[in-house]
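G., before I forget:
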Amino acid sequence: MLKIKSNWGRSRDILSHFHSIFGNLFLYCSLSGSFEVSSASAPFSDSLGMGLQFRVGEGFSIGPSSSIVIWLGFLNMCSVKNDGDTERLPKEQPDSSPNDEGSWSGSPTAGEGVVLKKGPWTSAEDAILIDFVKKHGEGNWNSVQRNTGLRRCGKSCRLRWANHLRPELKKGALTQEEEEFIIQMHAKVGNKWARMAALLPGRTDNEIKNFWNTRIKRLQRAGLPLYPPSSICSGASNENQLIQIDSEFCNGDIENSGVLHEAMNEMQEFGFDPCKTTIGQVSYVPLSDIHSTFLLSQGLEWPYTRSLLNQGVNDIKRNIESETCLPGYHGSLGSFVSTFKELTSGHSESMYGNLGLGYSYDADPDMKNLLSCSIPDSHALSHGNFSASRHSAGTVKLELPSLQCPDTNYSNWITCSDAPPHYIHVQSPPGNVSFMPDCASPRSNGLLEALVQESQTINCGKKQPSEKSSCSSAITLSDMMESTTVNFCTAEWEETSDQRSPFSQSVDEHAQITSNSLEEIPPTATSDTKMVVEQDSTISTPDNQSSHCPGFLRPDALLGSNWNLRDSRRTKENSDSFLALQGEDLSSAVVSLDSCPWNSMPSIYQLPEH
DNA sequence: AATTCCTTCAACCGCAGGCGC
DNA sequence: TGCGCCTGCGGTTGAAGGAAT
């Protein structure tokens, strides 16, 4: 960008000089923003709005006494309009302007064979785009190239406008409040950058994404948790609301859940004030993550510390012993959450800890199982950071931690109510989920590696110095990939005499959690851990076995858990009845956690075809 | 001062959904 | 229903600049 301040005569000389240097370029004079014209003669007086363009060396005139301050950008690739006449000039060949910013080679071509430019935008291009948007509004981006000659594809124009040229954009670094908001939002919605950006006026999804990626790299390196406990806590501070929402969900009236809609609307319309608002004040807490969020809100550490979790288990066991079922568990997840909160309330202090990356392989099967049960749909969930926001066929995409499935179809995760005896009803999200080796591919963004690394870090931190040496080599990614298949819930309605709908009975009638069952969770070792994903199927539980899990499991909650579920069977009629109940193609699973032959689950590589 | 490493961020890419024909 | 176009989203890349050596 050159600044030329001159009277007209000198300006013309200068422009001619540029012309001699750059050839038959187009010089673009933006009259917006930094461009200023102190005076101009008649021919240009009506062009003082936007996008004054002229061609070097051609007959333009301006009053000889005019003094112009011109910010010049060079636009050597497109034809420009001149006094309303669109002039299509012979194409400037890229190789004729090797010094031009951006790239030409391999660029896509527009309809007229115009080679589109790639690479950084020039201010001249910006001005053209701004001009176009001012005249035509946003949208119709592909017409930018057609109407202005700007040799940028529509997507590029849209991106440039959205990320850089929009007048409402905030410049500068994110504020502390905005960063906190992003962290909390990420804990809730995962990598939904656009959604976050919509709630952060003046910020772009790209900006937020870059912030997050930078942040996780930094924290990864430092071995710090991704989610500060305070962030998570505030993210679910309104427990009552969560439970209320949850209860309504559990009543099955999802679509008409006023609370849900209210919460959703509130989230979308609450007019987030980055200076004042924290996400904790927002009641947007999708059901699918209520439990995990709640648990995390208790500062529940993940990996859960053995002491805490043992304590929690013991508490639950005591309650189980006295009541057989979880007290207060009346078919509502929220109720269970309340129960769990009560059970763990005395230990919340010890719960506060590492909420971030860190799935501990320091197996404590009891607790992991327990807590896996408690977190039905969590991105951060099991390991604090795994997430699977997209369930593409056959694979789980390991995206960075969030506590929530962003595209949660809330109806997909209704659990707990009206399940038959000894069953835990689980609905898995659409699409099969598996844990495939490609998770460790470079495309996986290194998250798995990060996870492993984090776990090592944490484990090392917990161990005595003498143990650290072994710690570092305790788990490697390859180890994990080779030895770990994670069994997801595969379930089927047991062929019981009761052929009623699985939903015809309430959980509080049937959910039975016994201390015995808790103790029956097999000891685990990483090498034995398996992940199996099946969909639209159920796992049966022998009647003489009680489920360990109080009703809300979901597959990815088991990621990294040490559960190995017994072989599964499918009962079509039960599955069909479930689907009929749901009225949509949802996966369902009834999971029972009996004393299954833990190693009999098929690995994900042996998934039966559905 | 030169080089390497690291961080940041703008921009590209592929994909998916919506829409009109 | 299929196709093409447009738009939006999320993942990824690579250039630029700063920090470290």
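Chain A is about 40% helix and 5% strand. Residues 1-102, 104-108, 231-610 of chain A have pLDDT under 50 and may be disordered.

More on Monday.
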